[in-house]
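Researcher: Quick test of sequence recovery. Tokens follow.
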């Protein structure tokens, strides 16, 4: 019976392909695969809560810009139609009926026949005959995400439970926990036979185990095994249940042995089997994930007893391109575990260098690896392609840098890595690693965050820091900078914050005598970035919103005066197209963008230019000068997801060396006043830009400085 079913399903898939012109994901040409991955990125806008209006606008604009004049293949058209239909639903929730109707109209033109026909296309793309794990994880995710939407609005003829079972299988076999969670929730509501109800239990057990709740996961697995034993062949889910039941018992594949060993707590065995599984797979995200699981098992099994063992672990991760796994699983969790293991070893008497190397490697994962890499030509013709290129930059492999390399390349700098770890209240730790120019060995300080420390830290985060009590600022400053050289007057400080501490008032927290303070994703990124050259008469180009922003007027007026005095040559433009043409026509030394910025996260973020909104991805398409000043709210914020980025990072990826950006919403008049003084010091008096910004900040009246601290210097000082 099973053989007959398999042959019949194969015939159905073949017929669907022939009669409906369906292209399997593996048949897509490279450009179409890029399109499908870009669609996944747009779906991520809808997956966030709340869904911002500018995010919905970004979806429509990207589809219009990137696909309107193209002739995408049938599968790509169906994915776009599903994306637009769901976008239309969100527009309706926001009361924007006209935009909702436009989305639905375009969706109907792209995919006639409604959701049932679309489901046939999409199911064929994830047929069980394909080895989905060898495909790009974002490519598969686009299909799964669209299927979950289409099943929700399908007709009576579609057996929802069967489709959702296929989605759950595809999500599970490609390590996509987020999509598996959505499929399980939907399957629980649609399950109409005991077999499908058993499948819900099985996939819940996988989610529990993946989340570290091993005992609960094993209990759910035993419950599934009992239920599966009585599922007969007449149950429509019989074959799926039998396949799932087989996966709960050991068999011959390395991956199965690894899973079985991990479930019984044999971390040593799991490490070996996961490593063998990685060797059996082709290069790509899933191979990288298997390598990551192997090293995670080494951490859990106590197999990393020395600094050298940690370095060997890092070498293995880099050899299999660890960062490619960022679209499959939680890379940061493993790296944080390695960092904490390194701190444990240091406190037990081992060397401190490995702690600094791992702290910086974490920064590389959070975005540093995208900086200072050669760009691929021709990849930025649209925002959709530019955004996908940035994801690829974030996933590029890198190698840890040593403290000796940092001290050699950044002489005279104090480098400070800041990481907050801990999931439970009362269990948070602050780990600060300080590399001083006077001493080549890093100083490591791990502090258990007390209630008073936690309160002060919260008061100094983001926009709330503008109202932070002076005592809270002093307390956090003392925690972060306790290990600077005692005679650090005039010190140059490079801080590598984690995502928790990124948006902090760094110019307020820095010791008063510090000459400048720069923040960077990683020291490795700073080392790869070429310094901005000194220029006798810099060429400055700017785009401003002088209609609504008093600060923009102050900034433009300051630059006009410097131009009139002969200190700079100043060009003003009024649109993104003008800016693009000007940067193509002549070299510039400084670009300043002084406009509103939106609060939304990642690639939905918008700079509201005079001619219309523009995304950070658009910056990748410009020939940027070495220095970029983004006088825009939130232009330098830390993103909420590991595969999105702020505008400031886009500038650094596009070739800038130094970026001034807004960590939160800053008063525009205060920002304009601060930048006008910074320009005077830098462009008229010749003070290097990071020192000029620091001096301008300290020159403000004390009551204004906290509000101005949201403008930060990022990159290489």
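Model:
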């Amino acid at each position: 019976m099973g053989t007959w079913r398999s042959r019949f399903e194969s015939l159905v898939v073949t017929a669907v392909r022939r009669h409906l012109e369906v292209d399997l994901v593996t048949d897509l040409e490279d450009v179409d695969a890029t399109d499908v991955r870009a669609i996944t990125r747009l779906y991520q806008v809808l997956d966030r809560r709340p869904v911002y209006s500018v995010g919905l606008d970004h979806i429509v604009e990207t589809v219009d810009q990137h696909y309107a004049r193209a002739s995408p293949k049938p599968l790509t058209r169906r994915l776009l139609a599903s994306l637009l239909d769901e976008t239309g639903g969100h527009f309706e929730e926001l009361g924007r009926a006209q935009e909702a109707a436009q989305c639905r109209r375009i969706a109907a033109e792209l995919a006639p026949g409604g959701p049932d026909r679309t489901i046939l296309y999409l199911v064929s793309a994830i047929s069980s005959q394909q080895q989905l794990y060898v495909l790009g994880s974002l490519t598969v995710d686009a299909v799964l995400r669209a299927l979950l939407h289409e099943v929700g609005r399908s007709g009576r003829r579609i057996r929802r439970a069967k489709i959702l079972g296929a989605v759950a299988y595809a999500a599970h076999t490609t390590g996509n926990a987020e999509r598996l969670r959505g499929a399980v929730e939907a399957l629980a509501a649609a399950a109409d036979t005991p077999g499908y109800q058993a499948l819900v239990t099985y996939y819940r057990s996988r989610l529990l185990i993946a989340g570290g709740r091993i005992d609960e996961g094993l209990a759910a697995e035993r419950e599934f095994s009992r239920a599966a034993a009585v599922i007969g062949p007449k149950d429509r889910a019989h074959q799926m249940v039998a396949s799932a039941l087989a996966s709960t018992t050991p068999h011959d594949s390395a991956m199965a042995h690894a899973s079985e060993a991990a479930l019984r707590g044999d971390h040593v065995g799991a490490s070996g089997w996961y490593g063998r599984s990685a060797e059996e797979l082709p290069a790509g995200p899933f191979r990288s994930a298997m390598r990551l699981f192997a090293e995670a098992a080494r951490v859990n099994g106590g197999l990393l007893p020395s600094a050298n063992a940690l370095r060997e672990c890092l070498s293995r991760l880099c050899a299999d391109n660890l960062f490619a796994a960022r679209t499959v699983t939680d890379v940061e969790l493993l790296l944080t575990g390695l960092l904490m293991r390194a701190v444990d070893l240091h406190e037990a008497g081992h060397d401190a260098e490995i702690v600094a190397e791992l702290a910086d490697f974490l920064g590389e994962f959070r975005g540093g690896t995208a900086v200072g890499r050669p760009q691929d030509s021709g990849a930025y013709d649209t925002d959709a392609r530019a955004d996908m290129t940035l994801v690829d930059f974030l996933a590029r492999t890198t190698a840890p840098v040593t403290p000796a390399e940092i001290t050699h390349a950044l002489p005279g700098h104090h480098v400070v890595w800041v990481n907050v770890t801990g999931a439970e209240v009362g269990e948070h730790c602050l780990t600060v690693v300080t590399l001083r120019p006077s001493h080549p060995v890093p100083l490591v300080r791990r502090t258990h965050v007390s209630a008073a420390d936690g309160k002060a830290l919260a008061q100094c985060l983001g926009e709330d820091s503008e109202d932070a009590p002076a005592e809270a600022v002093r307390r956090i400053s003392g925690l972060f900078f306790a290990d600077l050289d005692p005679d650090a007057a005039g010190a140059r400080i490079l801080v590598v914050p984690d995502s928790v501490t990124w948006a902090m008032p760094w110019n307020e927290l820095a010791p008063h005598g510090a000459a400048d303070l720069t923040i960077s994703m990683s020291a490795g990124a700073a080392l790869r970035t070429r310094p901005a050259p000194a220029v006798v008469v810099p060429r400055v180009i700017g785009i401003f919103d002088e209609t609504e922003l008093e600060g923009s007027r102050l900034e433009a007026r300051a630059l006009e005066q410097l131009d009139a005095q002969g200190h700079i040559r100043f060009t003003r433009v009024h649109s993104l197209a003008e800016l693009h043409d000007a940067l193509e026509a002549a070299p510039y030394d400084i670009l300043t963008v002084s406009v509103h910025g939106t609060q939304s996260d990642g690639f939905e973020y918008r700079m509201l230019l005079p001619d219309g909104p523009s995304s950070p991805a658009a910056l990748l398409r410009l020939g940027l000068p070495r220095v970029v000043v983004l006088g825009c709210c939130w232009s330098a914020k830390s993103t909420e997801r590991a595969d999105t980025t702020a505008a400031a990072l886009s500038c650094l990826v596009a070739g800038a060396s130094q970026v001034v950006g807004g960590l939160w919403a800053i008063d525009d008049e205060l920002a304009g006043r601060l930048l006008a003084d910074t320009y005077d010091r830098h462009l008229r008096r010749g003070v290097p830009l990071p020192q000029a910004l620091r001096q301008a900040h300290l020159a403000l009246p004390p009551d204004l400085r906290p509000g101005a601290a949201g403008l930060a210097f990022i990159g290489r000082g």
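Confidence is low (pLDDT under 50) at residues 16-20.
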